Amino acid sequence: MSLQPEKPRYRPYTGAAAGWGALRSVAYSWLDSKQPLKNLRALLKTNQNGGFDCPGCAWGDSPEDGAVKFCENGAKAVNWEATTRRVDASFFALYSVSQLREQSDYWLEYQGRLTEPMRYDAASDHYRPIGWDEAYALIAKHLNALDNPDQAEFYTSGRTSNEAAFLYQLFVRAYGSNNFPDCSNMCHEASGVALGESIGVGKGSVTFEDFAQADAIFILGQNPGTNHPRMLEPLREAVARGAQVVCFNPLKERGLERFQHPQHALEMLANGSAPLNTAFFRPALGGDMAAMRGIAKLLLFWEREAQSKGEPSVFDHAFIEQHTIGLDSYLAMLDATSWEDIEQQSDLDLVQLEQAARIYRNAERVIVCWAMGITQHRHSVATIQEITNLQLLRGNLGKPGAGLCPVRGHSNVQGDRTMGINERPPVALLDALENRFAFQVPRQSGHNVVEAIEAMLEGRSKVFIGLGGNFAQATPDSPRVHQALQQCALTVQISTKLNRSHLTAGRDALILPCLGRTDIDRQASGPQAVTVEDSFSMIHASHGQLEPLSPLMRSEPAIVAGIAKATLGMHPLDWEALIADYASIRRLIADTIPGFADFNQRLLSPGGFHLNNPAASRLWNTASGRASFMASPLPESLLDEAVRSTGELPDLTLQTLRSHDQYNTTIYGLDDRYRGVRGQRRVIFVNPVDIRRLGFEPGQQVDIQSLWNDGIERKVEGFTLLAFDIPPGQAAAYYPETNPLVPLTSVGIGSHTPTSKSVAIRLYAAQENPLVAGTLTTAK
Ligand SMILES: Nc1nc2c(c(=O)[nH]1)N[C@H]1C(S)=C(S)[C@@H](COP(=O)(O)OP(=O)(O)OC[C@H]3O[C@@H](n4cnc5c(=O)[nH]c(N)nc54)[C@H](O)[C@@H]3O)O[C@H]1N2
Ligand SMILES: Nc1nc2c(c(=O)[nH]1)N[C@H]1C(S)=C(S)[C@@H](COP(=O)(O)OP(=O)(O)OC[C@H]3O[C@@H](n4cnc5c(=O)[nH]c(N)nc54)[C@H](O)[C@@H]3O)O[C@H]1N2
Ligand SMILES: [Mo]
Fold it and tell me: What pairing do the DSSP bridges indicate for beta strands 244-248 and 216-220?
């Protein structure tokens, strides 16, 4: 296969989502894993009782066994992890770090699984093997040499199990810090903040069963065909039984249009497919708050009309009276927002907004789902609160078939937060830890992702530990993040696969190879299960199925315990004793985390158990004890103040998004099937009218520059212009290649999430046309 980019081929895709294309792609990823038969057996265990939790997305399943519960992209995630290719000592002896840095992200991860602990040797610029105990001792030496514990950063990515996350936060707090930059800071942070204020719990309120009962499902800023393919089935069923599925997305994503079920033989053979939506609206980037406000304003108009005519109410007054506060100021805000602003900011006209509002009003039970198209803007918190306001007006919360559904990303990102991976921990959590473990827990807030990068850049933080993920590539302003990591005294990456974070090493650096979801995790008491929490707050066990590639790989809980013991000795407990049997970690979780009483016993029920969500039972953990209407004005302009202050107008607003062949910074291939792109990732989707307006030709090479007011030049080079069905004024390109354009200080108000879905950009004719890094061929 070719790991090198080619001249991009582009032809609009007209097939349905999933279907034959998905089967072909799964078959390919199977064969490429080098152990197709073993992986097939393992895959059939995906998301089944006694099997493992899919390392793909956080979508939940029905608890019953039986049906095949993996999708194309889940299969890719499994085959990617469960490969026999290995990155071992001989690999690192062959390539220097500088040579590896020349390679693409795709090439790096493709080389296989990390199989032994390695330490960076600056003199030779190679990684060299190191023993586990020596590695732990080195980390302890660095951590214990710091002037204060807040000079270290402890990153978590959302595949980490509950058991590993719980031990990690306990270790870091016993060490003395709350510095927990976390992938959720770049992901659903705004959902947590907004919902926490509005309804008292920062999680979604619906479960899998609610989708079968909803009259309408609104999907905002999400591309489930690629990122949550198992969601297509409930959507298809919803449309089939006559429910409304309403999409708000500037891109007509294929996976929101038609679905061909790869597990329905007849449908596949007849090449039939089913529709996935009943209405589609294409707002401006960041225009959803205005769109939701428009719908709410129409509901208010109809409510007043109904009152004057003595007709039944549009609002759910009983719910509003019993359960909410703040209605009056919210209605005043609706009156104060002009239709002109709503139309201009949403880029939708009154006719479209009325169509959406009628669907909304005619449905008794509405679920609203959203993902990164909503959470990665400057005013994301206010947008999610506007979604919530709308749902409160009609009591669409805490009843079957209705509610709020932030669709999470990483398979355990929600669980990691529940376990206390939180730089601003709730006081109740700290109290519980203090009582249970008898040590003084740090009370000051720690660093989120952006603050961690700033602290490393300024030399205030000197040690970086990453429990999974790819900090160097996932974060904004890549060149500065690379510099931040390289300035550290020590960087430690606990990882399954090689990525750029290993190549932006601190002066001292370690790679610690860990087991993944698919691997059998054997400890003194036998094979261990770990647990995860999905988007619907279901907690269930995951049992690895495949023999690990090397005895030198260790589990995440074991690695965390090893670091903790070397750094803190027996304070506050015997770390290593916990590793013999993870049930003993779960007993500690049961003692300290609300909702986990009898954890080990409840785990035995098929499908696991549901963590109670008070908002789903109309209990509100807010200061007032009620759900709050939150009245914020629309943003003054969708162009950030910082950009406006430069006086330069951007050519376009860019959103950075995922292709069909990637998992975040993990690139599985160079195609984006549903958007019709093959063989390349350095492309930018632009409306043909804009391409001409800006004086370019489709297919031409451009450099992209972003606008910000701090004088730093942010630029990426050699992108091919693709004429695409995208609203005028907008552009889209893949992340992580475009992360150098996202300014570190452009973050969401209240969420600090990088605004990676609205970057003001200018385009220039390319100086040259480098077909991206990559001169080495595949190793071995
Ligand atoms: N296969 C696969 N699965 C994944 C991932 C992956 O990379 N690959 N990543 C996982 C993770 S961590 C996450 S967080 C999720 C991400 O899941 P998504 O949020 O679906 O991911 P993105 O590719 O960022 O897609 C954003 C979508 O929002 C739309 N959008 C962008 N801006 C706006 C806007 O302002 N308004 C509206 N209405 N729409 C907008 C875009 O057109 C696009 O369809 O997926 C998870 N699952
Ligand atoms: N511009 C832009 N930037 C973004 C986004 C965007 O839409 N646009 N999305 C943001 C979002 S939503 C997220 S969640 C972040 C993702 O940020 P991260 O979670 O940091 O990134 P990933 O790419 O998921 O991490 C991939 C690496 O994780 C390691 N890994 C995989 N499985 C395991 C495991 O089981 N255990 C351990 N220890 N390591 C493992 C592998 O070494 C792999 O190379 O990126 C964010 N960055
Ligand atoms: Mo995410």
Answer: parallel
